[in-house]
Amino acid sequence: MATLLRLSNAVELADWEVEITQIRAQGAGGQNVNKVASAVHLRFDINRSSLPPFYKERLLALSDHHITKDGVIVIKAQSFRTYELNRQDALDRLQVLIKDAVKIQKKRRPTRPTRSSQRKRVDKKTQRGKTKALRGKVM
Protein backbone atom coordinates (compact mmCIF):
# COMPACT_ATOMS: atom_id res chain seq x y z
CA MET A 1 0.00 0.00 0.00
CA ALA A 2 1.64 3.18 -1.20
CA THR A 3 1.17 6.28 0.93
CA LEU A 4 -0.10 9.25 -1.01
CA LEU A 5 -0.71 11.79 1.76
CA ARG A 6 0.48 11.94 5.37
CA LEU A 7 -1.92 13.80 7.67
CA SER A 8 -0.26 13.02 11.00
CA ASN A 9 2.07 10.44 12.53
CA ALA A 10 -0.77 7.92 12.80
CA VAL A 11 -3.02 8.89 9.88
CA GLU A 12 -2.14 8.64 6.21
CA LEU A 13 -4.08 8.22 2.99
CA ALA A 14 -3.32 5.48 0.51
CA ASP A 15 -3.27 6.15 -3.22
CA TRP A 16 -6.40 4.03 -3.82
CA GLU A 17 -8.48 6.41 -1.66
CA VAL A 18 -7.91 9.49 -3.83
CA GLU A 19 -9.14 9.51 -7.43
CA ILE A 20 -7.25 11.98 -9.62
CA THR A 21 -8.25 12.59 -13.23
CA GLN A 22 -6.78 14.91 -15.84
CA ILE A 23 -9.11 17.46 -17.43
CA ARG A 24 -8.75 20.45 -19.71
CA ALA A 25 -8.40 23.76 -17.91
CA GLN A 26 -11.12 26.37 -18.28
CA GLY A 27 -10.70 30.04 -18.97
CA ALA A 28 -8.92 32.18 -21.49
CA GLY A 29 -6.57 30.16 -23.57
CA GLY A 30 -3.56 30.58 -25.64
CA GLN A 31 -1.38 27.96 -27.15
CA ASN A 32 -2.21 24.39 -26.12
CA VAL A 33 -5.20 25.26 -23.93
CA ASN A 34 -7.60 23.21 -26.04
CA LYS A 35 -5.14 20.39 -26.62
CA VAL A 36 -3.42 19.70 -23.29
CA ALA A 37 -5.24 18.29 -20.25
CA SER A 38 -3.17 19.89 -17.51
CA ALA A 39 -5.90 20.59 -14.93
CA VAL A 40 -6.72 18.09 -12.19
CA HIS A 41 -10.04 16.85 -10.81
CA LEU A 42 -9.57 15.22 -7.37
CA ARG A 43 -12.29 13.12 -5.72
CA PHE A 44 -12.06 11.76 -2.18
CA ASP A 45 -14.90 9.69 -0.69
CA ILE A 46 -14.97 10.34 3.05
CA ASN A 47 -17.17 7.35 3.94
CA ARG A 48 -15.09 4.80 1.98
CA SER A 49 -11.76 6.13 3.26
CA SER A 50 -9.56 4.60 5.94
CA LEU A 51 -9.71 7.74 8.08
CA PRO A 52 -10.49 7.30 11.78
CA PRO A 53 -14.17 7.87 12.75
CA PHE A 54 -13.31 11.20 14.45
CA TYR A 55 -11.87 12.56 11.19
CA LYS A 56 -14.90 11.37 9.21
CA GLU A 57 -17.39 12.95 11.63
CA ARG A 58 -15.61 16.30 11.59
CA LEU A 59 -15.30 16.33 7.79
CA LEU A 60 -18.94 15.41 7.22
CA ALA A 61 -20.03 18.11 9.70
CA LEU A 62 -18.21 20.80 7.70
CA SER A 63 -20.27 23.07 5.48
CA ASP A 64 -17.68 23.48 2.75
CA HIS A 65 -18.55 23.90 -0.93
CA HIS A 66 -16.02 21.19 -1.82
CA ILE A 67 -17.99 18.50 0.05
CA THR A 68 -21.05 17.04 -1.69
CA LYS A 69 -24.18 15.71 0.04
CA ASP A 70 -22.89 12.17 -0.52
CA GLY A 71 -19.73 12.91 1.47
CA VAL A 72 -17.33 13.23 -1.46
CA ILE A 73 -14.69 15.96 -1.51
CA VAL A 74 -14.25 17.38 -5.02
CA ILE A 75 -11.28 19.67 -5.70
CA LYS A 76 -10.44 21.18 -9.07
CA ALA A 77 -6.91 22.51 -9.52
CA GLN A 78 -5.99 24.48 -12.63
CA SER A 79 -3.71 27.25 -11.37
CA PHE A 80 -0.53 25.92 -12.92
CA ARG A 81 0.53 25.05 -16.46
CA THR A 82 1.70 21.51 -15.75
CA TYR A 83 -0.23 18.47 -14.61
CA GLU A 84 2.30 17.65 -11.88
CA LEU A 85 2.03 21.06 -10.20
CA ASN A 86 -1.78 21.02 -10.39
CA ARG A 87 -1.84 17.50 -8.94
CA GLN A 88 0.37 18.56 -6.03
CA ASP A 89 -1.77 21.68 -5.50
CA ALA A 90 -4.95 19.57 -5.30
CA LEU A 91 -3.35 17.15 -2.81
CA ASP A 92 -2.09 20.05 -0.69
CA ARG A 93 -5.57 21.60 -0.63
CA LEU A 94 -7.09 18.26 0.40
CA GLN A 95 -4.54 17.94 3.18
CA VAL A 96 -5.26 21.47 4.46
CA LEU A 97 -9.02 20.85 4.35
CA ILE A 98 -8.74 17.66 6.40
CA LYS A 99 -6.30 19.16 8.93
CA ASP A 100 -8.47 22.26 9.42
CA ALA A 101 -11.55 20.11 10.01
CA VAL A 102 -9.82 18.10 12.72
CA LYS A 103 -8.25 21.09 14.47
CA ILE A 104 -10.03 21.78 17.75
CA GLN A 105 -10.72 25.47 18.25
CA LYS A 106 -10.00 27.12 21.58
CA LYS A 107 -13.12 28.17 23.42
CA ARG A 108 -13.39 31.94 23.50
CA ARG A 109 -13.69 33.52 26.91
CA PRO A 110 -15.48 36.86 26.84
CA THR A 111 -13.38 39.65 28.29
CA ARG A 112 -14.34 43.06 29.62
CA PRO A 113 -12.72 46.32 28.55
CA THR A 114 -10.48 47.94 31.15
CA ARG A 115 -11.66 51.03 32.98
CA SER A 116 -8.93 53.18 31.42
CA SER A 117 -9.86 52.05 27.90
CA GLN A 118 -13.51 52.93 28.60
CA ARG A 119 -12.49 56.37 29.87
CA LYS A 120 -10.25 56.96 26.84
CA ARG A 121 -13.11 56.04 24.50
CA VAL A 122 -15.51 58.47 26.18
CA ASP A 123 -12.86 61.23 26.23
CA LYS A 124 -12.24 60.75 22.49
CA LYS A 125 -15.98 60.94 21.83
CA THR A 126 -16.34 64.23 23.74
CA GLN A 127 -13.25 65.67 22.04
CA ARG A 128 -14.62 64.70 18.65
CA GLY A 129 -17.96 66.28 19.53
CA LYS A 130 -16.24 69.54 20.51
CA THR A 131 -14.31 69.56 17.23
CA LYS A 132 -17.51 69.08 15.26
CA ALA A 133 -19.30 71.79 17.29
CA LEU A 134 -16.65 74.31 16.20
CA ARG A 135 -17.67 73.73 12.55
CA GLY A 136 -21.02 75.44 13.09
CA LYS A 137 -21.99 78.88 11.76
CA VAL A 138 -20.30 81.85 13.33
CA MET A 139 -22.76 84.42 14.74
UniProtKB/TrEMBL annotation:
<dbReference type="GO" id="GO:0005737">
    <property type="term" value="C:cytoplasm"/>
</dbReference>
<dbReference type="GO" id="GO:0072344">
    <property type="term" value="P:rescue of stalled ribosome"/>
</dbReference>
<dbReference type="Pfam" id="PF00472">
    <property type="entry name" value="RF-1"/>
</dbReference>
<keyword id="KW-0963">Cytoplasm</keyword>
<comment type="subunit">
    <text>Associated with 70S ribosomes and polysomes.</text>
</comment>
<dbReference type="GO" id="GO:0003747">
    <property type="term" value="F:translation release factor activity"/>
</dbReference>
<protein>
    <recommendedName>
        <fullName>Peptidyl-tRNA hydrolase ArfB</fullName>
        <ecNumber>3.1.1.29</ecNumber>
    </recommendedName>
</protein>
<dbReference type="InterPro" id="IPR000352">
    <property type="entry name" value="Pep_chain_release_fac_I"/>
</dbReference>
<dbReference type="GO" id="GO:0043022">
    <property type="term" value="F:ribosome binding"/>
</dbReference>
<feature type="region of interest" description="Disordered">
    <location>
        <begin position="105"/>
        <end position="139"/>
    </location>
</feature>
<keyword id="KW-0810">Translation regulation</keyword>
<feature type="domain" description="Prokaryotic-type class I peptide chain release factors">
    <location>
        <begin position="24"/>
        <end position="40"/>
    </location>
</feature>
<keyword id="KW-0378">Hydrolase</keyword>
<dbReference type="GO" id="GO:0004045">
    <property type="term" value="F:peptidyl-tRNA hydrolase activity"/>
</dbReference>
<comment type="similarity">
    <text>Belongs to the prokaryotic/mitochondrial release factor family.</text>
</comment>
<dbReference type="GO" id="GO:0006417">
    <property type="term" value="P:regulation of translation"/>
</dbReference>
<dbReference type="InterPro" id="IPR045853">
    <property type="entry name" value="Pep_chain_release_fac_I_sf"/>
</dbReference>
